[in-house]
Design goal:
The complex is a heterodimer of chains A (290) and B (267). Chain A is mainly alpha-helical and 290 residues long. Chain A contains 14 helices and no strands. With 267 residues, chain B is mostly helical. In chain B, 78% of the residues lie in helices and 0% in strands. The chains are: A mainly alpha (290), B mainly alpha (267).
Chain lengths: 290, 267
Amino acid sequence: MASDPHSRDIGEPWLLRLVLVAGAGAVITLMLVLPLAVVFAEAFAKGVGYLLSTLSTPDSLAAIRLTLVIAAIVVPANTVFGVAAAWCITRYQFPGRHVLVSLIGLPFSVSPVISGMVYVLLFGLGGWLGPFLQAHDIKIIFALPGLLLATGFVTLPFVAGQLIPLMQAQGIEQEQAALTLGASGWQIFFRITLPRIRWALLYGVLLCNARAMGEFGAVSVVSGHIRGVTNTMPLHIEILYSEYDLAAAFGVALLLSCMALLTMAAKAFLDWRDHRQFALGAQAALVAPL
Amino acid sequence: MLPGFGLTLGLTTAYLGLIVVIPLAGLVLKAGQLGPAQLLAAVASPRSLAAFRVSFGAAAIAAAANGVLGVLLAWTLTRYRFPGRRLLDGLIDLPFALPTAVAGIALTALYVEDGWIGQLLKPLGIVIAFTPAGICVAMAFIGLPFVVRTVQPVLRDLRRDAEEAALTLGATPWQIFRRVILPPLMPAVLTGVALAFARGVGEYGSVIFIAGNRPGVSEIVPLLIVTKLEQYDYPGAAALGTAMLLISFGILLLIQRSQRRSGVHGI
């Protein structure tokens, strides 16, 4: 411990330290631990049997399936986009580069409700393309495509947000060396770049997935809340909650909480594995100028 | 030059165009369909103004609380070694990872009259759930990690010679904190507070369960937008959305400017 620059015994008296640590513990307990604990308590309030029966109703199963389908489509799409965007932004100098970075960060600074609304205004009945879509019997709003678009918009920055600062810092010397040795573009990417960004990439994918499964506001606007059809897990929580079936609402919430806890555990593992602090928010990374 | 410029730039611009630019342009154009008088009526009606007041007021209170608590948490988690520190540090990210609807019903369950916290506050005459105070609680939860995670790296890199010098010169802990430690932390604190504020203003899922949602009292702007959409008042919703969009861009620009001036980079 003596070599740790942060624990050298200078500064505050021990009583002050104790008070500060106790205060921090109290804040974390009150603001973070209790909300998590109440989810578990309420979910098991009517027993394990009731919990399992509410999770296996057709509506709950349909919500779980829909949430998994959305994540399975949106996460790979935003991963490919994130890698491509990070490659072109950090590997080349071109006019408009900063505009692209700002656009990628945009969904973070937009209210989720607006993220959903833009597609309603585009594809909804009174929207720009509404009459055309209705004439050709294409459903986007209140259907799966709308849910995919809204979720895709909200989770667009996560992978790119992890990769851009990292690849910018790494520079392009190694890739250029490979190029002069005659490697092809794909060889360079898979043999040189990917191994050096894999943990950040994995982390971005995990964040993207957590948000895709948990998104509420944007999806709520485009969903139409059709049970068994356009009802995702977070929306199903709202329906169960408004029907005063608290144990069932918290049962679905419990599943999503476990997903969140797994994401956080994976972050802790990646922090330890990669010896660096991953930026969970990623917002600040995108806000910061390159 | 490395290969792949055309492919990646094409993919990036096409994807951004389809998912972000065209839909946002549609929003602004929809609001533009209204004349100036109608636009003003939509954004400046008593109900809208009240909603803006609630959203921005609650977000400001929550962000200020995040600023104070965030510095306390960042300080103890970075400077002190104690059992359970790593676990507590990991927990800070919970609001980023927990779906907002889950946070919303969990906070409501805690703060209703017979909830774990609500029943302790009731004898004191304090009501949180279904009042504007509940909105602050939800926004404070959502915004908590921003300040902690922007301040922590700065604190970690802070040189301690100045503190030691101040100590040997007889400064009290409070003087050292106020005069030596806080000044270099301030840009990061303000960035974190601004991010928390921006997040709070747009927040929907965690707020609507605990807010009570009474028009004029505890109705936030995002909820008013949803209400207008449900009534097929698309131009009205678009006008409110555009107003919010402009305000968030303003906040974002301020953050970028302050970061560039102070040299704070991304976490």
